[in-house]
Specification:
Distance between the termini: 43 Å
Number of helices: 4
Largest sheet: 6 strands, antiparallel
Helix content: 25-40%
Structural class: alpha+beta
Strand order of the largest sheet: 3-6-9-8-7-10
Number of strands: 10
Strand content: 15-25%
Shape: globular
Order of helices and strands: HHEHHEEEEEEEEE
Length: 229
């Protein structure tokens, strides 16, 4: 009975970790990409993108690497002669220190974001943005997501988890200043043969909840950025 209880606990913990990892990998709205080996610059870029938007602080941010990326970071660090103590821990124990100011961990449940299919020529079908409301019918509005209407020859190949930009920049959550960086969006639902994309975040162009510099313009091209797995 004791072993069965321990096993059930581990099973529940593993299920929770997998669900959380999949949610982050397939729904996170702040996306940076890189082809090839994970690098310090990628971690620093991810941290900068969030800080530019006023998200969190260095104390609350965490970075979780898959085993391959963790091995690459530890191997690179272990071969260096400086950074006393940290290099020894990396070489002997495969331990990774904070990377780019972010506490870093390793997990074996990190999923891959698949490469998109052949999706070219997708455009916004009519200028669109989200209007924040308190209620929809008798239920609280989920202002995090938005149904975007698109057109194009290959829209049937768009799939859940795809990431794209649509010609608008993100803004700082508090100051509403333009970050100078294109806002990334995630596809979390596809319907209408690909004409209706449920996306995170909902693009809000005006008011206190503004998160993008402008509404998504009619005929604006969608640029998909998950070009490789």
């Amino acid at each position: 009975m004791t072993q069965a209880g321990i096993g059930a606990g581990r099973d529940l913990a593993a299920a929770a970790e997998v669900a959380m990892a999949n949610a982050i990998a397939n729904k996170a709205a702040n996306v940076v990409t890189q082809t090839g080996v994970f690098s310090w610059d990628l971690a620093a870029t991810a941290r900068r993108v969030m800080k530019q938007k006023g998200i969190g602080s260095s104390a609350s941010m965490k970075m979780v690497l898959n085993p391959l990326d963790a091995q690459k970071i530890a191997g690179e660090l272990g071969s260096r002669a400086f950074f006393q103590g940290k290099t020894e821990q990396a070489f002997v124990r495969n331990q990774i220190p904070d990377v780019a100011g972010t506490p870093t961990f390793e997990a074996d449940v990190m999923p891959n974001v698949a490469a998109r299919g052949t999706v070219t020529g997708t455009t916004v079908n009519g200028a669109q943005s989200h209007t924040v409301t308190a209620m929809t019918d008798d239920l609280p509005t989920d202002n995090r997501q938005f149904v975007l209407t698109v057109a194009g020859a290959n829209i049937a190949n768009i799939k859940v988890g795809d990431c794209f930009t649509a010609g608008v920049n993100s803004v700082h959550n508090i100051t509403k200043q333009d970050t100078g960086e294109l806002q990334t969006f995630r596809v979390i639902g596809v319907s209408g043969g690909g004409t209706q994309l449920t996306i995170y975040p909902a693009p809000v162009a005006t008011g206190p909840y503004k998160n993008v510099t402008a509404a998504l313009a009619n005929s604006q091209a969608l640029t998909f950025i998950n070009s490789v797995t």
